[in-house]
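Exercise 7. Given the encoded structure of a 413-residue chain, write a plausible sequence.
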């Protein structure tokens, strides 16, 4: 019996999420998100831009963490333009990279008003095909081809483009609704036809300009599954992303697991562990400096809060009266300790005594003063790097993996 097709998550927080205007992440924060995404069982993290020089040390250090088994299950994928020149540069700068998504615009709007005559419809395909073949030549193990502005691309041309990508060796096609203009009905129909015609798994990449991002993402994936192929949904933690944001990681997972018509019919990658949700969302909120909305599904402060008499009474009698899923499933429910007295912190001007006190509290000991001093120096750099107090998770990472940490903090203009 043929196994059922599944939905896999490709999280793009470290690529598209960081393109959100007015915010940024340090390279240490991006690394921590990769670690948490790995713990959560996410299939792939689009971990950055391998063509961008200030990413080089971070990307190479994270690939070292793959070799060490720290990032043991997750794939780390890079985003780049679909040109031979960019592919060559990527493998020069990040030689160990194995997974790529090559992107090029496909809509009439973009071809005519973005490329301004530099490329036409046939040369877009030619450029993309050459880039895919070049990536294979350099040893890429998986290649996704992104059709930017796919939602406004003529379907006949999109099929032609995708078939050419497949013939060149692409593993997946990414259907990008960059402007968030699709609806659940249109994206289901278009992705269903595209999957049937091209006979290849598809990724769905949606934006939230109309507030439909989660609905569009799961409906696009459903169209692919109904055509008989695996589907991949692009997400961002806490829905970060350009303009109104991308599909929220936790909301997408909850919609697949508990949405009527999805549950028990369409299947999520079994590696996904929602218990990491609370931790990863809180960390991302701290790292981005963006509060979690009070009404955010699963994670918001009010996601399991009841006040009105009828609701409170019903929830106390049986949580299923007013709660669709359990808070424990998202890693919530344990008490969290907040220090209200004396607190010693580790910062860019810390001394060895206070530093050791901080690490004793998180139960990490050093074999001697030399090791402690070396880690202290890295912690000082990390505080300069982050420009905010380090979390316990970041402190543990630096102590456990000082060599990759040193590389992550190093940036040479």
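Solution.
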């Amino acid at each position: 019996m043929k196994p059922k097709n599944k939905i896999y998550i490709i999280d793009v927080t470290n690529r598209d999420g960081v393109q959100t205007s007015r915010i940024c992440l340090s390279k240490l924060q991006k690394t921590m998100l990769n670690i948490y995404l790995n713990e959560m069982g996410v299939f792939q993290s689009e971990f950055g831009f391998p063509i961008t020089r200030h990413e080089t040390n971070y990307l190479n250090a994270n690939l070292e963490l793959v070799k060490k088994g720290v990032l043991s299950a997750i794939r780390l994928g890079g985003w780049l333009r679909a040109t031979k020149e960019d592919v060559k540069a990527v493998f020069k700068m990040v030689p160990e990279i194995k997974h790529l998504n090559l992107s090029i615009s496909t809509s009439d709007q973009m071809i005519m008003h973005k490329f301004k005559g530099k490329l036409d419809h046939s040369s877009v395909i030619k450029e993309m095909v050459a880039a895919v073949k070049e990536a294979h030549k350099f040893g890429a193990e998986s290649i996704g081809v992104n059709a930017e502005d796919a939602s406004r691309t003529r379907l006949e041309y999109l099929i032609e483009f995708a078939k050419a990508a497949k013939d060149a060796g692409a593993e997946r096609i990414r259907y990008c609704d960059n402007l968030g203009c699709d609806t659940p009905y249109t994206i289901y129909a278009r992705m269903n036809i595209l999957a049937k015609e091209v006979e290849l798994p598809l990724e769905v990449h949606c934006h939230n300009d109309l507030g439909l991002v989660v609905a569009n993402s799961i409906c696009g994936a459903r169209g692919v599954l109904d055509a008989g192929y695996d589907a991949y949904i692009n997400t961002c933690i806490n829905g970060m992303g350009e303009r109104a944001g991308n599909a929220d990681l936790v909301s997408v997972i909850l919609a697949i697991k508990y949405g009527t018509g999805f549950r028990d019919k369409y299947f999520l990658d079994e590696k996904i562990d929602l218990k990491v949700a609370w931790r990863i969302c809180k960390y991302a909120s701290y790292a981005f400096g963006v509060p979690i909305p009070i009404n955010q599904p699963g994670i918001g402060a009010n996601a399991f809060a009841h006040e009105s008499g009828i609701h409170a009474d019903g929830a106390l009698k049986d949580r299923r009266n007013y709660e669709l899923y359990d808070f424990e499933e998202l890693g919530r429910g344990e008490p969290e300790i907040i220090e209200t007295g004396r607190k010693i912190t580790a910062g860019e001007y810390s001394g060895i005594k206070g530093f050791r006190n901080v690490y004793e509290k998180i139960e990490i000991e050093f074999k001697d003063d030399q090791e402690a001093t070396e880690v202290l120096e890295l912690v000082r750099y990390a505080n300069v790097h982050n420009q905010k107090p380090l979390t316990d998770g970041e402190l543990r990472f630096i102590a456990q993996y000082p060599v990759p940490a040193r590389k992550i903090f190093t940036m040479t203009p």
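Remark. The chain has two domains: 6-283, 352-403. Students should compare their own answers with the one above.
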